[in-house]
Amino acid sequence: MGRVILVALLVCLSAAATQVRAEDPYLFFTWNVTYGTISPLGVPQKGILINGQFPGPNINSTTNNNIVLNVFNNLDEPFLLTWMGIQHRKNSWQDGVLGTNCPIPPGTNFTYHFQVKDQIGSYIYYPTTAMHRAAGGFGGLRVNSRLLIPVPYADPEDDYTVLIGDWYVKSHTALKNFLDSGRSLGRPDAVLINGKSANYKRPLFTMKPGKTYKYRICNVGLKDSLNFRIQDHPMKLVEMEGSHTVQNTYESLDVHVGQCFSVLVTADKAPKEYYMVASTRFTKTVLTGKAIIRYTNGRRGSATLKNLPEAPVGWAWSLNQFRSFRWNLTASAARPNPQGSYHYGKIPITRTIKIVNSVSRANGKLRYGINGVSHVNPVTPLKLAEYYGVANKVFKYNLIRDVPPKKQPVELNLAPNVVNQTFRNFVEIIFENHEKSLQSWHLSGYSFFAVSIEPGRWSPEKRRNYNLLDAVSRHTIQVYPKSYAAILLTFDNAGMWNLRSELTENRYLGQQLYVSVLSPARSLRDEYNLPDSALLCGIVKDLTKPLPYSI
Ligand SMILES: *[C@@H]1O[C@H](CO)[C@@H](O)[C@H](O)[C@H]1NC(C)=O
Ligand SMILES: *[C@@H]1O[C@H](CO)[C@@H](O)[C@H](O)[C@H]1NC(C)=O
Ligand SMILES: *[C@@H]1O[C@H](CO)[C@@H](O)[C@H](O)[C@H]1NC(C)=O
Ligand SMILES: *[C@@H]1O[C@H](CO)[C@@H](O)[C@H](O)[C@H]1NC(C)=O
Ligand SMILES: *[C@@H]1O[C@H](CO)[C@@H](O)[C@H](O)[C@H]1NC(C)=O
């Protein structure tokens, strides 16, 4: 009897502790994901549209908004979207990657429910299934400040999203076939800006003379770092992946895959048209995307290629630019959780994980790995297997160690790559890149302090070079060839979180892992229950739902 009441009580409580806080405003969206013909390069190709749009619609939200987004998958394949950089506190159920969510079957719908918290800034969403991202389905996501939280700059006249990325004319299925057969994607064909190529002659943006505009620049591409610049117009950096920065002015910015910057640009030059340019970095052949900005009193067709800003050469320039990024410690806007962790330089490190990326061509098939393991997604999402208590039937924890093998194996171990992490530990992660190519790493569910990028190999004494005062708290970090990057963070967000290469080929072929952060209490204070609306698949499909977390 008593037990029945207790169970009933738990069920009521878990229903009350839903994914969203009822008192905060709601934003509702219905998205129809379909195929459609797009011709960004003048050649018709099969694109992925959201409500008929390529790129997809912008989500314009304000801190504490509850987002309820119903996605109808009208493709012929399972589909998922991830909200890159949105932290989903206690709520990895909404992260939209195959380790946490069953994909939405074709012809059905699924509703994401999540709340955007105090991470004022510019973000993107994109598909995580198959190679869908190569066909579209991506878009911008803004988190604005509530009126009561001032941001460290005056309200701009307008606010523009600039999605830059490399692009292939080949279909996403052809690209997937390359990877599935163990080949590389090869070189992209162009760089697009908001889905348009350089031969698009109409202005994408307009500016009133004398006014200041905010541009949110994100790299939504598959592999190439891009240098972004605007003819004759320096950019004042104000925000990076959810942190307000010291407001330095830049002639150009290197934006690595998955990264976002917000800059202010003032229309204080001759009233005409200007080019904005995004060109590939560290590639033999440079691909350049261009788009036109017109002053409202500027003459049509007045953009010229004269004085088009030159791109920097080599990666030392890029590293110096990284070193110039500083967090604005006095900006009164929101700080990453937990409140107070901005004194990160004083927190003792309890664990160091060193990650080395590697590539293998065993049996003629390309694979990428981390510390000897190349991740594969099991049919049952890792988080669901763990929640239902059947993890041992789906994956093994900790196949990799915190220290990579001395010699990377010729043949990678193909398996789900999951490491566990003690709740609330303060951890150092080192990304050591022994290869000649640039890497870009993202951790979902968190913001981390990007304390160092240096050439060479990491060793404990390199900690002396860390920025322990005002490193920017962000979600994606690049690692230059034969270099390392160090990040620090507190694993205080319970859930199953994806640490991945943002280079699509690398990620698709195994360069990712999941971090399981379990709260020992199984408490709703630390993590939400599996939502009632969650899709079920694999071995948990017909299992009885476990008892919900308690308060
Ligand atoms: C989505 O778009 C397709 C193609 O235009 C249409 O057939 C379908 O009815 C739409 N579905 C929804 C839910 O709007
Ligand atoms: C975005 O939302 C903010 C806050 O509600 C609003 O002031 C702004 O006009 C919106 N922008 C767009 C482009 O809808
Ligand atoms: C699918 O869409 C319908 C109609 O909008 C909605 O009532 C239902 O809750 C959605 N289902 C899921 C699983 O999100
Ligand atoms: C940091 O933010 C403060 C408070 O909004 C602002 O006054 C200051 O100019 C900013 N500092 C820098 C260096 O950008
Ligand atoms: C992590 O996994 C190891 C080995 O499976 C286990 O002994 C340890 O207790 C786990 N730690 C946490 C924090 O879950």
From TrEMBL:
Classification via CDD domains: CuRO_1_AAO_like_1, CuRO_2_AAO_like_1
Domain Plastocyanin-like intervals: 32-146, 158-297, 381-520
Keywords, sorted A to Z: Glycoprotein, Signal
One GO MF term attached to the UniProt entry: oxidoreductase activity
PANTHER family: MULTI-COPPER OXIDASE, OS01G0816700 PROTEIN
Annotated family: Belongs to the multicopper oxidase family.
Protein name: L-ascorbate oxidase homolog
Species of the source: Ficus carica (Common fig)
Taxonomic classification: Eukaryota, Viridiplantae, Streptophyta, Embryophyta, Tracheophyta
